[in-house]
Amino acid sequence: MQYKRQRPRRRTPGGMRTNLEEGDMHLIEEHLYLGNIVAAQDPEALKEHNISYILSVFDDELSVKCDSLTYMQIRVYDMYDEDLLTHLPEAIEFIDSALGSGKGVLVHCHMGYSRSATVVIGYLMSKTKQPYEPVYDMVRAKRLIGPNKGFRNQLSVFAEMGFTLNAKNRKLRQFMVETLLTSDTFWKKWENKVDAYFARLELIESMTGELDMGAGYVCHKCGHKLFNEIHVQRSTASEEDEWVGIDSDTLSDGKESCGYLYIEPQKWMTGLLGVTADDGPGLIKCPDCAQELIEYNDMFDPFTACYCLSHKNLFKCRRFRVADNKIKIESQNELKLD
Ligand SMILES: [Zn+2]
Ligand SMILES: [Zn+2]
């Protein structure tokens, strides 16, 4: 097949050039290659390195594909608030099955710099049970890489969870609301993302053994079941907001609670949302008694920025809130989140 060979523009943060050899792909470990889009579309080079599996980590299409190769794709942009985290287990499985077959596998994105490097580092972290830094150093010694800050945080969360996805992990749940559903970049697509969010969350919940959803919350007026404790977003103890790098202590106004619960979106809300972009908070009524229950906001603005002690380091993921006098607890099961 004929194709035009195009070299992607080489760039490093600050436009710095380095002395590291910038090839299209580099061998990171036996049979495991990290490279750019040129490498992924170079049949000769792939053959030469005995590569039979290609993992594409970008939002584009390969214009050259070979029938004899096995492909997998994770569609993400190279942005800090894109979700790579929840794709890591399937990526690891793909790389494992490739390496198990004794063939080579190429993990690539456009530059082989951020997205694909994140996946390769995540793979090696999970295999060696090591934290980010030493694995980054090892890969960096072989290729010029630079996972973006959001991806680095995602790898840390992945390591904290023991390299599996655990639906009981507060950070993971916050991350999912923040990235899959309410990312600032794509807030206009909010309605289109709801289904994907719930599908992804259900997948992870099904992977988590014995998931206790905690106490149920019901409408104060009519007793209609609304959500569970696991859906309530609370600040994790004494931690800064790593996602946005803000020192939460200086932001906290010292109040224990503001009288609201911030909650994850619920499936039953889907039909009740009419996204308001500029007109301030929307309102969701109780499906049973039509009491106005939940306020929501599609944009990041002061409405969602609460600095009470319960919410101070939940920065970007708070979009839905309910005043605590509009709900009551249905049962008193203890729930301990990680
Ligand atoms: Zn608050
Ligand atoms: Zn009600």
UniProtKB/TrEMBL annotation:
SMART domains linked: DSPc (SM00195)
UniProt GO molecular function: protein tyrosine phosphatase activity; protein tyrosine/serine/threonine phosphatase activity
InterPro entries reported in the protein's UniProt record: Dual-sp_phosphatase_cat-dom, DUSP12, Prot-tyrosine_phosphatase-like, Tyr_Pase_AS, Tyr_Pase_dom, TYR_PHOSPHATASE_DUAL_dom
EC top class, as a word: hydrolase
One Pfam family in the UniProt entry: DSPc
Family, as annotated: Belongs to the protein-tyrosine phosphatase family. Non-receptor class dual specificity subfamily.
Protein's name according to its UniProt entry: protein-tyrosine-phosphatase
Originating species: Medioppia subpectinata
